[in-house]
TrEMBL record:
<keyword id="KW-0479">Metal-binding</keyword>
<dbReference type="InterPro" id="IPR015947">
    <property type="entry name" value="PUA-like_sf"/>
</dbReference>
<keyword id="KW-0863">Zinc-finger</keyword>
<feature type="domain" description="Lon N-terminal">
    <location>
        <begin position="167"/>
        <end position="375"/>
    </location>
</feature>
<dbReference type="InterPro" id="IPR001841">
    <property type="entry name" value="Znf_RING"/>
</dbReference>
<dbReference type="InterPro" id="IPR003111">
    <property type="entry name" value="Lon_prtase_N"/>
</dbReference>
<keyword id="KW-0175">Coiled coil</keyword>
<dbReference type="InterPro" id="IPR017907">
    <property type="entry name" value="Znf_RING_CS"/>
</dbReference>
<feature type="region of interest" description="Disordered">
    <location>
        <begin position="387"/>
        <end position="408"/>
    </location>
</feature>
<keyword id="KW-0862">Zinc</keyword>
<protein>
    <submittedName>
        <fullName>LON peptidase N-terminal domain and RING finger protein 3-like Protein</fullName>
    </submittedName>
</protein>
<dbReference type="Pfam" id="PF13923">
    <property type="entry name" value="zf-C3HC4_2"/>
</dbReference>
<dbReference type="Pfam" id="PF02190">
    <property type="entry name" value="LON_substr_bdg"/>
</dbReference>
<dbReference type="InterPro" id="IPR046336">
    <property type="entry name" value="Lon_prtase_N_sf"/>
</dbReference>
<dbReference type="InterPro" id="IPR013083">
    <property type="entry name" value="Znf_RING/FYVE/PHD"/>
</dbReference>
<feature type="domain" description="RING-type">
    <location>
        <begin position="89"/>
        <end position="126"/>
    </location>
</feature>
<feature type="coiled-coil region">
    <location>
        <begin position="357"/>
        <end position="384"/>
    </location>
</feature>
Length: 408
């Protein structure tokens, strides 16, 4: 019986001193730990012989204490052999920063792993399957502390590099460009961001002090995006478990593209903010009268929308703004004119023309003409025929980007 107990309880020397890797880095010694099972065996072995042979039990206890000392020395020697190269991230070849250890046991910088996950849920080292939970996986605290303790100089250098890179992005005169649709000053622009390049853009934007990026529509021919757009500011951001974002943004200012570039997969541009030209004093009375006329007509059209459509419009971009007291001095003119842009039946090309126009009077007259055409269209729909007048024919053939049901 005793032979059976000894044979099944006493581990061999290799098992007692066995060291198993916990974190698979570049070093074979990284993250060493002693098997918990063997540790329990070491501590309980002397108790087996305590009653039958006290001297033998004491001898075994002393032997195991010596083994513990040898083990501790071996572990210390292993840690002493670790170099800066052993604790480098295999993706960026820098000292690991905010280490994340995946389920397969490989460790990377949090930022590096996040960018990998944007393109696919697999470990970049062994190609083992990862999950969406790895986006929100916490840092490996024990390894982070070990790096700070063993390689303080390298860790501080990595921290400074990341800070300098962030400062360079913020000081860079180029602004990141989100190529999607036309946005407008003062108007809400809700976005669902899922493309890998734009996930990176948004993460960097949220870390910047301004939380701003440029929005421009796609160009049909030639360049990637149109030459006029709107700078958006992120007001709220929701990060989803799959790494995508839901953003609440608002248009800040219009811009003109001066030059184009690229940064880590997404587009950038040097831009020039544009504003309306100053109206001469002799033309102010005419402009004020025109503004009042068009605003009244636009308000009447908005109230003609069905309650369901109006509720959906207000849910997406808010209610129609009131006229500002200082609308004449605003760089982009009264905000209600831009609020109409997403819901008027304008093509993307015409929206860009509106963005590029710095003459408020021209924009008001264009809106006035569009509202007149829509009124003609509404009357023609009531008669279920198309009017024969030249203006009405144009309205029947004009391109419509959004169909809006109207009350009859």
């Amino acid at each position: 019986m005793n032979d059976f107990v000894l044979e099944n309880t006493i581990p061999n020397t290799t098992d007692i001193l066995g060291i198993q890797p916990r974190y698979h880095l570049r070093s074979g010694f990284a993250g060493l730990q002693i098997s918990d099972e063997n540790t329990r065996s070491i501590r309980t072995m002397p108790n087996i012989f305590a009653k039958s042979n006290r001297k033998f039990a004491t001898a075994i206890r002393n032997a195991f204490k010596e083994a513990e000392t040898i083990k501790d020395t071996a572990i210390k020697n292993c840690w002493n052999t670790i170099t800066a190269t052993d604790l480098e991230c295999i993706l960026c070849s820098r000292c690991i920063f905010d280490p994340i250890t995946t389920a397969c046991g490989h460790t990377f910088c949090k930022g590096c792993l996040t960018r990998v996950l944007d393109h696919g849920l697999s470990c970049p080292l062994c190609m083992a399957s990862l999950s969406l939970k790895d986006y929100s996986r916490g840092i490996t605290v024990v390894l982070d502390q070990a790096i700070r303790f063993l390689l303080p100089r390298e860790h501080n250098e990595r921290l400074l590099i990341d800070l300098k890179e962030a400062q360079m992005l913020n000081r860079n005169s180029d602004i990141p460009v989100f190529i999607c649709t036309n946005a407008f000053p003062g108007v809400a622009c809700p976005l669902y961001v899922y493309e890998p390049r734009y996930r990176l853009l948004v993460r960097r934007c949220l870390l910047s002090p301004t939380r701003r990026f440029a929005m421009a529509a796609k160009e049909d021919s030639g360049e990637k995006f149109v030459s006029y757009g709107t700078v958006l500011e992120v007001k709220d951001a929701v990060s989803l478990e799959d790494g995508s974002f839901i953003l609440t943004t608002v248009g800040v200012r219009r811009f003109r593209v001066l030059s184009r570039g690229e940064q880590d997969g997404y587009d950038t541009a040097k831009i020039q903010v544009i504003k309306d030209t100053v109206v001469s004093s002799d033309k102010l009375p005419e402009l004020i009268a025109l503004h009042h006329k068009v605003y009244t007509k636009a308000s009447k059209w908005i109230t003609s929308l069905t309650p369901k459509v109006l509720a959906e419009v207000e849910r997406l971009i808010g209610k129609m703004p009131r006229v500002e007291k200082n609308w004449l001095s605003l760089p982009d003119g009264p905000s209600w004119t831009w609020w109409l842009m997403p819901i008027l039946p304008l093509s993307s090309q015409l929206q860009v023309v509106f963005l590029s126009t710095t003459n408020l009077e021209k924009r008001l007259r264009a809106i006035d003409k569009m509202l007149e055409r829509m009124e003609i269209r509404m009357k023609s729909l009531e008669r279920n025929t198309c009017p024969l007048s030249e203006d009405a024919s144009d309205s029947c053939d004009s391109e419509r980007t959004i169909e809006i049901p109207l009350n009859n």
